[in-house]
Write a structure and sequence with these properties.
By secondary structure, the chain is an alpha+beta fold. It is built from nine helices and nine strands. It has two domains: 36-143, PAS domain (Beta-Lactamase, 2-Layer Sandwich), CATH 3.30.450; 155-306, 2-Layer Sandwich (Alpha-Beta Plaits), CATH 3.30.70.270. Helices cover 35% and strands 21% of the residues. The chain has a five-stranded antiparallel sheet with strand order 2-1-5-4-3, with helices on both faces. It has a four-stranded antiparallel sheet with strand order 7-8-6-9. Helix 6 packs across helix 7 (176-193) and helix 7 packs antiparallel against helix 8 (220-233). It starts with 21 loop residues before the first helix and ends in a 37-residue tail after the last helix. Residues 1-14 and 283-316 have low confidence and may be disordered.
Length: 316
């Protein structure tokens, strides 16, 4: 009697996932919708003629509505401050798959706000755009800051470039953790020295920049003197023999003199390096405290009007 053969069940290849069942598909769809609703940006789908098909809760609130249905009764063109912004997006999508634009919108209560629009044209079977999918990011705060900065640049301002001297030697001798303490020290000195209207930030490994507004009675010389005083009195705990040293260059904001921003920044950088080079022939920062009392040259004389400079760069 022939041995009966057992039928083996068919196995699905590992790289061929099984088709999801209807309940599993619905769970995935619900999770996707929940994700869209929780994103901190406005998400939309509209037709070419402006009918709103989909909108998440953030977009509903962004446009000043309380319920999605009241938003769906509107046309997107009702929210544009300038109608040509909408036309520009559609025109760009006619030749490219995506469009990134910044423009103003108007809420239902009339209040204006700025957005960054990331839009994609979705084409139908005939190759024409069927609808638009996109994301709106509120950039009102950024635009407000840009306007304030532009206004300040028209006033009497000056820029200070500041560089920590001998930071590489400190890192090599004591490690980067100690070098970081010097960086933190400079940031603390600037934070305690500058006014609320002044702006500063770290722009490189050992470089900082300060944009300050000139005030009556307290000009740029007073600012540099305060920074120098903070540098002179700064100490690193457990490394009392270290002395913080910085080089600074200062230029006044003059749109007539500096036609390009690069020239303006390069001049401040050049003046800072002028002072730094004057220190290269002096003993390094890493020295006993009793030998560190010798006064370093100050930055008070390194002003734009007192030093020759050419926008061709820093000489070798």
């Amino acid at each position: 009697m022939a041995e009966r053969q057992r039928k083996r069940p068919k196995r699905t290849p590992p790289d061929a996932p099984a088709a999801p069942t209807a309940p599993a598909f619905r769970v995935g769809e619900d999770r996707y919708k929940a994700l869209v609703e929780q994103l901190p940006v406005g998400i939309y789908r509209t037709t070419l003629d402006g009918m709103i098909i989909e909108a998440n809760a953030v977009l509903v609130r962004m446009l000043g509505h309380k319920r999605p249905q009241t938003l769906f009764d509107c046309n997107v063109e009702d929210f544009y401050v300038k109608g040509e912004d909408r036309s520009r997006v559609i025109e760009k999508l006619s030749s490219k798959p995506t469009s990134f634009q910044e423009f103003e919108l108007r809420r239902i209560d009339g209040r204006r706000f700025w957005v960054r629009d990331y839009c994609r044209g979705v084409k139908g079977p005939d190759g024409s755009i069927h609808h638009l999918d996109g994301i709106l990011v509120d950039i009102t705060d950024r635009k407000t800051a840009e306007r304030k900065l532009a206004k300040r640049l028209k006033e009497d301002n000056y820029l200070v470039f500041l560089d920590i001297d001998y930071l590489k030697e400190v890192n090599d001798a004591h490690g980067h953790a100690v070098g970081d303490l010097l960086l933190q020290g400079v940031a603390a000195i600037l934070r305690s020295t500058l006014r609320e209207s002044d702006v500063f930030g770290r722009i490189g490994g050992d470089e900082f920049a300060v944009l300050a507004m000139r005030s009556k009675g307290l000009g740029e010389r007073a600012l540099l003197a305060r920074i120098e005083e903070g540098v002179r009195t700064f100490r690193v705990k457990k490394f009392g023999h270290l002395r913080l040293s910085v080089s600074m260059g200062l230029v006044r904001v003059d749109p007539q003199k500096y036609q390009q921003l690069d020239d303006f920044l390069a001049h401040a950088d050049f003046l800072m390096y002028q002072q730094k080079r004057s220190k290269e022939r002096k003993p390094a920062l890493i020295k006993p405290a009793e030998k560190a009392a010798k006064k370093e040259p100050t930055a008070n004389s390194l002003f734009a009007e007192n030093r020759p400079w050419k926008p061709t760069g820093i000489p070798a």
